[in-house]
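subagent[fold] <- orchestrator: predict structure for attached chain, return tokens only, no commentary.
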Amino acid sequence: VVGCGGRGSGAAQNALSVKRGPVKLVAMADVFADRLSSSYAALSESLPDRVDVPEDRRYLGFGAYKEAMDQLRPGDVVILATPPAFRWVHFTYAIEKGLHVFMEKPVTVDGPTSRRMFELADRADAKGLKVGVGLMSRHSRALQ
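subagent[fold] -> orchestrator:
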């Protein structure tokens, strides 16, 4: 998981709670130490058998996303839950590494970055990578 605030922690919790497949959290990255440590504490307490993130795989700083993704193998999944200004940078690296991506919304906040993300999505598609975006209201009967 890249971005360990509320949404990143929530997305990781959701992913780790699925009943199918072997799912394990192996690396975490954030710019803020308090977010990283509180996210790790909460996830490892609620799902201890699915969290395998020793201290040397908890990364801090603006380059932490690379260190975390470098722990994954092609075909693994990375959760991107940072502010949207960084999303295209992280998405680009995930594609280079051959990783499937789940990212939180908003994906972008302006036209130029949106065009860049569409180009990156085409690159991911050409490599056979799956990309998903969290849409909390997609299944809301009230909003439908």
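orchestrator: received. Logging for downstream: Residues 102 and 132 are 5 Å apart (CA to CA). The chain has a mean pLDDT of 95.
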